[in-house]
Structures are given as structure tokens and as C-alpha cells.
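Question (not urgent): is this output format expected?
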Amino acid sequence: MIPSLAVARELQRRGHEVFFVGTERGVEARLVPAAGFELQLVRVGALKRVGVVRRLETLGQLPLGTLRMYGLLRRRRTSAVFSMGGYAAGPVVMAALIARKPVVVMEPNAVPGFTNRRIGGLVTRALVSFPETSRYFRRGRTEVTGLPVREEFFALTPKPSEGVFSVLVTGGSQGSRTLNRAARNSWPLFRQAEFPIRFVLQTGQAEHEALSAAFGESKLCGEVRPFIEDMPSAFAQADLIICRSGAGAVAELAAGGRPSVLVPFPFAADDHQLRNAQAFESAGAAKLVLDSDLTGAKLFELVAALARHPESLERMGAAARRLAHPGAAARAAEILEEVAL
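Got this back:
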């Protein structure tokens, strides 16, 4: 939703009328009205990782949902449709294709999701974050634009080496059990080795109290927080970032030019987090560790090894910055203007 809102704001700034289509149970139900945009609701469910009954329910909803979206696009005289994929995009994208409306998709992952894979050969333009993603769409219709990221990340400069090595561990706003557990189990090892480290951990709300108490007992320097509001500042203070490899996370790492250890969420749809991490590792921008392999000992070993070689961290950060694409929202808006009927 954050990239979609960035594109919507850019279109609005250029004088265009924008409305969203989504479900009443998705995050869009909260974020879109809060941002001042209109949200049209569609009834549709998921098709992947659900039971047979739910899948049949979804398939039954698709024709009616598509028909309703077709009528909506006609009534609103819609000039173009922008989609980030996801199951909620299915009916409106299908309706746009039937109505011969231009469809511009933004695919931030190395491997497209279900919806974008199915319509890859039919879309007007595809905006991707990784060059290798282009093979899923028609030749000549893709452009590497990257994902819209807050400008504060692009303003970050390389962090100079200091006496204390600063590590940021974040599993996202909800936290990650795997990252939380590995961090907690690594603290005694850092303490025993008398390793000069500053540890910042974003835990999510559920595990914050227990981890905060354990961190206090470790006597290490740093802080444990349920949620970090100012993530660009947290990035600025980190020598190394350990995190998941969702599209938003890797886009921010690239924009900030920060070296990282990426731990893909193993249950992500189509294993897209693994593909994102592999793309970053291949570019020399990150180290990849599987979720099942991340232990306290592994985390300690990686951090200690990387801290001993600041030149490697510098190269990783520079490689990450080469993957960044400033101005993604503006370019998406330009392309929508180009193809609009």
C-alpha cells in the first residue's frame, strides 16, 4: 500500500483524479481513507495457501466482482489502471483488460506474484525492481523503475567505522520470531567475547516485554523496541542490518546503501523473499541466510566476521546503492500519463 499511495499522491499532484479498489479487511481499508483517497470495495478472497472451500468461494466471487468492476471503470471513465498485484487486484485488472483499458503493473519482487504472472502477457507496461523479472512480461513492455521509497533513505550517507559496531535487527512492524530468537541467543556470546557492539532490535509488540528484560540482563549497549517509527534514522546509525527480504525492505536497503544479512520469510507467497535475497546476494549487496539456519551462534559468527572486514561492508553498501532507483513514483505517474486513454 505504501508504494501505491506514493504513486497516487504523485498523480494527484499532477492534477489527476485517483481512486483505489480493495477489500474491507485489507490494510487499504485503514490507510487509503486516512490518506484522503476514495476506496471502492470489492469482494474477493485468496486462491493460494487456502482450503478447497475458500478457493471455490473465491472462484465463485470472481465473475461477479469482475462485472461490478467493469461497470465501475465505465462509470468513472477510467483512463488507466495501476496495480501492485495481490488477490484484490484480480477483478479490477480483469475488468480493465476486458474494457481495453491500459493496465500498468508494478512488480517489486524478483518473481511476480500470482496475479501479475497470470496477466504478464496482457499488461500495457510492467514496472519492475530487478532486470531478471522482465522475462515474465512481454518483451519491450518492461522498465526497471524500482519501488517508491521515502526520500529520507536516499539521503543517507555511508556510515564511518567507529569503535562500537552497530547492528540493527528488524523483522518488520510485527517482528519475527526467528530473528528475535537468534538475537536473544546471540547476546550471551557477544557478552562472553567482550565484543564492542551496539544492538538495536525491533521486536514487534508480542515479544517486546520478554526480550527487553533479557536484553537488560545481557548488559549490552543498545535498545529493544516494539516498533521503530523513524527507520531512516535507525538505518543511518547501523553498520549492518539484519532483516527479512520483502520488497519494501530490500528497496529501503538499496536506497540507503546499507549492507545487510537477509533472512527470507520461508512462507512468503511463491518464495519471493528468497528470490529477492538471492538477487541481492548475487549483486554483492547482502549475505543470505535461510530462516532454518539462523541461530544465535550463526548471527554472532556473521556479525563478528563482517565487523572484522569493514572494507567488505563498504563494498556491500555500495553494491546495494547501485540497486536503488530514485524517483520511482514520479516515473510510474509519467508512464500512466503516457498510456492513459
